[in-house]
Amino acid sequence: MSSYAEVSSRGTPRRGPGGELLLQIDAEGAATLLDDDLGLSNGRAWPWDGRTLYSIDTLARRIHTRDYDPAIGATGERRVFFEVTEGHPDGMTIDSDDHLWVALWGEGRAIRISPGGDVVGRVDGPAPHTSCPVFAGPDLDTLVITTAADGMSPRGPRREPAPGTPVHGADRAPRHPPESVGRNSAARTIPGGNRMKLLRIGAPGAEKPAVLIGDDRYIDLSDVVSDFDEAFFGAGGLDRIAPVVAERAATGGQPIGDQRIGAPIARPHQIICVGLNYSDHAAETGQAVPSEPILFTKSPNTLVGPNDDVRIPRGATKPDWEVELGIVIGTRTSYLDSVEDARDHIAGWVLVNDVSERAFQMERGGQWLKGKSAETFNPAGPWLVTQDEVESVTDLGMWLDVNDVRRQTGSTSTMIFDPYFIVHYISQFVVLEPGDLINTGTPPGVGMGFTPQIWLQAGDVMTLGIDGLGTQRQTALAPR
Prior knowledge:
Blueprint: E1 3-4, E2 21-25, E3 31-34, E4 44-47, E5 52-57, E6 62-69, E7 73-83, E8 88-94, E9 100-105, E10 109-113, E11 119-124, E12 130-136, E13 142-147, E14 197-201, E15 208-213, E16 217-220, H1 230-234, H2 237-249, E17 254-255, E18 261-262, E19 271-275, H3 279-285, E20 294-298, E21 303-304, E22 310-311, E23 319-320, E24 323-329, E25 346-353, E26 356-357, H4 358-363, H5 369-372, E27 378-379, E28 384-386, E29 397-402, E30 405-411, H6 419-427, E31 437-439, E32 461-466, E33 470-477
Parallel strand pairs: 19-31, 21-27, 22-33
Antiparallel strand pairs: 1-4, 2-3, 2-13, 4-5, 5-6, 6-7, 8-9, 9-10, 10-11, 12-13, 14-15, 14-18, 14-28, 15-16, 16-17, 19-20, 23-26, 24-25, 24-31, 25-28, 29-30, 29-32, 32-33
């Protein structure tokens, strides 16, 4: 075996993400129903030597490559490897000849691409909505796809196999690395088309809404909107300020200088967090990879600016850090019909430090809330980046340093559940209001994952960032 496909999500589902049936396709194109702990490849793949990373940009319909270092992850600039001209790429893997297989959602087929970037083969599925090819089994020689039952879209109803249907691979030994399940969403046009970075400038409680111009200047919008809050997002505020921003941008704005930058949104209705959403982070904490998102809440009054101090709470013995991608909800969201519908309900993305106290979280009984909700435990910003400002939210590098020592290095490509899946999933249980914040989990490198473990101390300085979302810097203060 010369190659292996690794992906952005891990799990062992017995159905596809929309309740689809799993089918094995043989060389003649015949389909066999599966009900097995198969891994489904989606999002990224690399040859067995682990030196080149292939990643999907579903919206741009491209396959990119980047250099890959097993010790630190993806490095260097992304390069366009292949332009998809039929359908939308929605899952891929690498076979034993180092050829790339890419599923084309909406086309009902997967194509085989040579290392030189040429299409050298294809296989048609039995239904028009195909995703997630993978070479299943230890020999990597069986192509598996998911397909919606009866040719319906991936949101189609779940259907149980008929009595006597053969089940494939029930006694197959597990593959290593662990199997995976992709959560990438189908392509969809981003609504609005307003490319902006929203920020709030001023003293705590007196921030004024603004939009970033260039790297260090801003447009004051306090005469147009009162704040970036639930009322603003719920009333279509992004569309309303777009022409004002376009007009005022010509003036060049004014310098930020040494003014305080607050959180880019006003205190939200709720902060919802996703736990253990990176497979490598779950491994470092010694906990199982979840089959469904783990949800918990965080007190909204933990929200502070990106460079505000973080206060260690009284009685704390294990304060910790977590760089995370935050989702800001743009419109009231409840019972979404599909994962792809989530795109219409997201205002944008934000950098978050989900500061935690592990002893409170893990050792004091009850739920995680008590280890997550101390004052200042949710620095956010410096700005809210609208969706169309980010080329691929599922392939963003992220990092965190403590006292100038790199502790976390990761990528949103290793999420178990991607942002669109998360919003859809939460909407089945909770009504999300405009301006709500969702913290989507952290990559490896948290203090509790080290041996021996490392905890924040008063005077420590955390610096962190995510590609395209800016950077933060906080100093840890002793308990008050």
